[in-house]
Design brief:
By secondary structure, the protein is mostly helical. It has eight helices and no strands. Helices cover 68% and strands 0% of the residues.
């Protein structure tokens, strides 16, 4: 799996077609929460963040008709991050407001890096939701509670009646499956 997930060129081509509803469903499923959370962390209220999502999706639909996947011009994800940032700025200008900086995402993070962070977070949750049904409840809980919720291993092992070794095996199996799903998805590639 790439450590820098990008939107595959093949998905962008499918989206440019305009008729491929499955491609649009997959794109919206991943990027809607990314765009929404990014806009919220830039200080937009919930309703305004939803508006930004709609405007960005409309711009994506228009932009993809002429999108050139030339790496020299930058990545699609980079363009998307800039589009969301600019829409948030435009909103604040139109409302004569100042953005609210939330502590969860420090202001020192560049907009593209913040967008990348949101995308990785969203991609993980997207894959985790699909993988969860593939595992027994105790295996999933061992993974989720220790790897995601950062609960103490000994406490989780005791509560799930598992050994520490079994917890490590469960975490490894679930994480490997999540990585596999991400690597097979249209959302992970080093393509632009």
């Amino acid at each position: 799996m790439s450590t820098d997930p990008e939107t595959r060129t093949s998905l962008l081509v499918q989206l440019a077609d305009g008729e491929n509803q499955q491609a649009w469903f997959e794109f919206v499923e991943l990027y809607q929460p990314v765009i929404f959370n990014y806009a919220r962390r830039r200080g937009l209220q919930e309703a305004d963040a939803h508006d930004v999502v709609q405007v960005v999706m409309a711009r994506v639909a228009t932009k993809l008709k002429t999108w050139d996947a030339d790496q020299q011009r930058g990545s699609f994800r980079g363009w998307l991050a800039i589009a969301v940032k600019n829409l948030a700025i435009d909103y604040f200008r139109s409302q004569k407001l100042r953005p609210i900086h939330l502590p969860e995402l420090p202001d020192v993070i560049a907009p593209a890096a913040a967008f990348d962070w949101e995308q990785r977070r969203s991609l993980f949750h997207w894959a985790a939701a699909r993988v969860q049904q593939e595992f027994q409840s105790s295996t999933w809980q061992a993974f989720w509670r220790t790897a995601v919720l950062d609960q103490h291993l000994a406490q989780v092992a005791r509560e799930l009646n598992m050994t520490r070794g079994a917890i490590y095996v469960a975490r490894s199996r679930v994480l490997a499956r999540i990585r596999q799903l991400i690597s097979q998805s249209e959302f992970d590639s080093t393509q632009g």
